[in-house]
Amino acid sequence: MCGILALLGVPCADAVRKEVVDAAKLLRHRGPDWSGVYCEGTTVIAHERLAIVDPDSGDQPLYNDDKTIVLGVNGEIYNHIELREQLEARAPGKHHFRTKSDCEVLLHLYAEDGPDFMTKNEVCGMYAFVIWDKRNSTFVVCRDPIGIIPLYWGWGTDGSVQVASELKALQKSCKRLELFQPGHIYNSKVGKAVPFYTPRWKDSSIVPTEEIALTTLREAFEKSVVSHLMSDVPYGVLLSGGLDSSLVASIMSRHCQRRVETDGKEPAYWPQLHSFSIGLAGSPDLKAAKEVSDYLGTVHHEYVFTPQEGIDAIKDVIFHLETFDVTTIRASTPMYLMARRIRASGVKMVLSGEGADEIFGGYLYFHKAPNPEEFHAENIRKINQLHLYDCLRANKAMMAWSVEARVPFLDRRFMETALSFDVKQKMCKDAAGNKRVEKWILRKAFDLPGHRAYLPQNVLWRQKEQFSDGVGYSWIDSLKAHAEKCVSDQQLKTAEGRFPIKTPRTKEAYFFRDIFASHFGENTAACETVGWQDSIACSSEVALKWDKAFQGRADASGRAVLGVHESAYDNTYKTASQSTGEPEAKRARTN
User: Fold this and answer.
1) Per the count of CB atoms within 10 A, which of 69, 160, 418, 427 is most buried?
2) Cβ pair 43, 71 in contact under 8 A
């Protein structure tokens, strides 16, 4: 994982080199291990490297043999060995790899297949990259299909196109900037960004009906986790004690003794798995994580924080996360604190469980899904929003302290499996209409007896706790109480005058927005990049229409779902709407 900043089409690269190098320093937390710069003609590509694979020779930017093609990339390509072999089979002896970097294969695929190379090849990984082709003065910009890796672009007054891993690197030089959309590739010769990968599941109107065998699902996920273990540096796992992170940890513990890069032929450099958890004293997550660690035999690191320590970190969290979304900040703060402790342990890469709730309908509001069609449509809506919320949180909160987070549930091949089977197998009631726990099919797939068991039964079947709840309920309560002290009734009353774009409607939201404005301006282009919607228990705005009981309870905490969460807020709980309503919400199918 790294940080990239590219200026393309500047009048004179040498004249802006110092400016670009200085701006790239704002990304150095993403890559403290080395800095590299390509500066020639009309192009500058700056790279801040976090060395995970091939730390000795994988410095960037990367070049072809005659240095006419330049690559700056932030990410990991999990099937890079497979892609190299395929390339060699198609063009024997043609491509000379200068490093052992997993990302170098992108350079050679471009050289072989041209600007459409991402459509012609199955690239599995998380990535955002820029390729400059000196031969014809064109460039390509691309971002992975889910948006696991952040990417922004903007336009300079000199006519340049500017691309960066975080918007803070573009803020000074671009009055207009946007999120670069996931799953898109921009070819400067064509002049527009287009999708390069459109899986069948992208069309939410096609509702799968073919049942999946439990073995098929289990093997697909295990394969995904194993593929994510490639590393030449110490790694670990984020372990909350919930289903998703515990399954990731369990599979890792079975495969971490051998190097996946050699199909297990060589022993792993760091064969003992380290796990990490954080919470308030006595929190549900800490207790559950310790139980899982004891069961799996990991070297466990448990970090306790106080509400005040979290509140003290909020300003830095918002600077790194580049958001004022309430849910994201609530969950990011403990993750940010944990990342600092992880880095101090010497671990540079961790696996995490993001994405499972979106794919399998794990959030508690899914209990209220009215039918399979709407359940599946919500799966796709949530996946399409991941780059605005959970992926942004996992990436930026960890990378604030130079720790890479990998998310095997969002593997391209696993998602094709997990989104192609009968939706009824995912729903929170069985064929007879009886209630069952969320993510039942995933739990059942890993529910094996005796020595084959992946997890203790009480963990495997534990109710969903969102991270911001699981670290301790008093964390959110303390945040709300602090915001109540910091924001006056008059400030909230006139919020729309100060913040006409994505107006905060609660004191907590105003508190976060005020801090965001101190970093990125009041109503600047940066505000437009922030995800903003009404939500109950992390729902989309559409799903908020599923149940009358949801109305007036648009709080992202799982405790807002009355009658499902075991410690739900009572029926007197109300909160203000954050938005004026998403048109799509009116089209939710509820019959």
Assistant:
1) 418
2) no
